[in-house]
Amino acid sequence: MNKPIILAATLAISATGTAVLADEIRVLNWQGYGTDLGWAVDAFSKSTGHTVIHEYFNSEQEMLTKLRTNPGAYDVVLINAAFTPQAQGEGLIGPVDAASIANLADVPENLKGNEDLNAGGALHGVPWTWGLTSFAVNTNEVDELPTSIEVFWDTAHEGKVSIRDDALEAVQFAAIATGQDINNITDLDAIEAKLSDLMPQIKTYWGSENDWNQFMAAGDLDVATFWSGSASRSMAAGLPVQFIVPQEGAIGWLDGLSIPSSSTKKEAAHQFINWMIDPEFYVKWAAEGAPASANAKAAAALPDDAFNKRVLGDPEVVARVQFQRPVSDENREKYLELWQSLKAAQ
Amino acid sequence: MSTVLANQERLRIFGLLSPAYLWLTVAIFLPLSAMLYFSFLSEVPFGDAEWSHTTENYEAFFQTSTYAILLWKSIRLGLIVTLVSVLVGFPCAYVLAKVIKGRSREALFLLVILPFWSNSLVRIFSWAIVLRGNGVLEIGLNAVLPFEVDVNLMFSTPAIVIGLVHSYLPYIILTSYLALQAIDDNLIDAARSMSANKLTILWRIILPLSLPGLLAGAVLIFVPVVGSFMEPRILGGRVGTYFGTVIEDQFVAVYNWPLGAALSFILLAVVLLILAVASPVLRRAQT
To answer: Span of the secretion signal (chain A) (predicted)?
Structure first.
């Protein structure tokens, strides 16, 4: 053991009074999504003595597979609330000890009490961030900001439209356009017809935030679906785009931080989650472009012109949001089939 | 005595061939059989996931018309790309083999092979920059031409064909070049002395004699193009959905490896079938 580590460990003991040894915790998340910010990890290590190592996934299915195949390998994992019940049901994640996460007190009851995060009757995911899947327009090409999702079907934008190449997102997007509940789609034929009408409008599908930014910067697109967190980053980077939450509504998602039941460093994991929902961390992160925080105190601490306060802080906007619930395998397959057949017909 | 010799001979041949067979087993047979096994499973057998043996993944191909439509689309793309590559590549190979001599041939050869040294993804992204509206091609043409042209090929089938032809052209040039070089110049001189015109020489002498190389190159192009996914996805946009991209989706996005594996083997079977049907023609060309 060299001196700095001893020093850090002593600091940790004096800081928390509980930590005995410096642990190395492993976090499983999307790459570049908050938990792996260099300054945040450094600050955490400095105050607790624990070091943080990251591993990444590219899809929720991959995340679940990694949890299944590597028991004990991870201590904190990011799980979208729509997948928390599945992870809990398979015994991959354990309940969170709310008492050891002090900042949880500032998370509003409606998020803390979210049905999916409380799968199995106990809190299994700490509400971390939430955001919207809606769309953004290129302000260089579109003079008047649209208020309706119908802008996607406006022939004035033919060949200048894009949506993400994702079956679930495409179907839920069309559900909003056809006035349906995204979690209980009853008229799939209407969705198929609506998407089929949309196809000739589309220039290309986008896959990643980077793709999206390039297409917009090149002037290839007028209007495209987008995530609120990504939109705040693109706007902060100076792209001429504006995020829109149309009158028809938008898709909402909620991400939680969970602790795998096989984790051997649960105490350090709780400390890390507490830091992740800390207002100090969030305000700094939001300046670089972040989704909305689940912590009310953190959200309130943002400057008034911040994207997450200006757009997502508006209760009238939030009222229009439909939050994603778990999707059954059966429906998932149906949506995928529909989306593939539409793409194949092009 | 002779049997001992034959045995020794056999042993020697076996000894010499075993590294090759070992390599084939490790590099081709094992991964392929693992995938074949996957294609008959209901789930990816990782962790505690429950799985069983099933033929559902193969049945899925026939349950909707989606896969058949895409497979046909991919085969058509393979044929178009192969045809364009032959039309462009064969004259190139002819010029290299019969017209140009000496050092300039080496230089031209280098230019043909040069694209092979760069990463294929980089090549495709470079094409994206060239083909996009207001891109390098459009600006270049407008600078030269007296009238305005609007070139926006990006996200269209021609863009995919251009990208794929550029990627696979060296195959047909190299195989045709080898076949063309082997043709004795005296044969051409003899034909000319009997007053055959250029077209007759091409049709009756050069083409038949270089056909094995030409066909080998065509097969080398056709097979990977039918399964291609990266080029259609990047250059094709909305029209860039092919059989290969659907297989890629199964592995990368949907995480349904068994279905992806089954679709891959259906593709393999169809390609083998096409080659089998074409084999009488191919064999006649060899002799």
So the answer is: 1-22
Q: Mean pLDDT for chain B?
A: 89
Tell me, yes or no, if B241 comes closer than 8 A to chain A by beta carbon.
yes
Pairing mode of beta strands A51-56, A292-293 = unpaired
Distances (CA, A) of A184 to A204, A225, A263, B56, B171: 28, 21, 35, 28, 53
Q: Which residues pair with A164 in a beta bridge?
A: A206
Q: Are A118 and A124 in contact (CB under 8 A)?
A: yes
Closest of B182, B174, B183 to residue B110, by C-alpha: B174
Domain edges within chain B = 65-286
Statement: residue A16 has pLDDT above 60 = no
CATH number of A3-129+253-300: 3.40.190.10
CA atoms within 13 A on the CB side of B54: 14
Contacts of B155 in chain A (CB under 8 A): 203-204
Residue found by looking up tokens 């697109």 in the block = A221
> Do A65 and B241 count as a contact with CB atoms less than 8 A apart?
no
- What pLDDT band is residue B285 in, cutting at 50, 70 and 90? low
Report how many helices (DSSP H) and strands (DSSP E) chain B contains, helices first: 14, 0
Amino acid code (one letter) for B168: Y
Whose tokens are 């291609």? That residue is B228
Considering CB atoms only, which of B47, B69, B236 is closest to A344? B69
CATH 1.10.3720.10 fits B65-286, yes or no: yes
A131-251+322-344 fold: D-Maltodextrin-Binding Protein; domain 2 (3.40.190)
Instruction: List the beta bridge partners of residue A321.
Output: A250
Nearest in space to A292 (alpha carbons), one of A127, A106, A104: A127
Could you tell me which residues are beta bridge partners of residue A256? A79, A127
Q: By the 8 A CB rule, do A291 and A130 touch? A: yes
Say what the alpha-carbon torsion angle A40, A44, A49, A51 is, to the nearest 10 degrees: -50
Nearest CA to A293 among A127, A175, A140, A102? Answer: A127
Q: What is the DSSP string of A262-296?
A: T-S-HHHHHHHHHHHT-HHHHHHHHHH---EES-H
Q: Which residue in A215, A212, A174 sits closest to A196, CA to CA? A: A174
Domain boundaries, chain A: 3-129+253-300, 131-251+322-344
Q: What is the DSSP string of B17-57?
A: HHHHHHHHIIIIIHHHHHHHHHTTBSS---TT----B-SHH
- Tell me, yes or no, if B250 comes closer than 8 A to chain A by beta carbon: no
Establish, for the pair of chains A and B, how many residue pairs have beta carbons separated by less than 8 Å: 61
Assess contact for A255 and A292: CB atoms under 8 A: no
* β pairing state of A161-162 and A241-244: unpaired
> In Å, how far is B249's CA from the nearest CA of chain A?
10
Banded model confidence at residue B43, pLDDT cuts 50, 70, 90: confident
3-state secondary structure of A314: coil
Rama region for A72: left / alpha / beta (φ>0; ψ in -120 to 50; rest): left
What is the tally of helices (H) and strands (E) in chain A? 15, 11
Q: Please state the ipTM of this predicted complex.
A: 0.80
Secondary structure letter of residue A219 according to DSSP: T
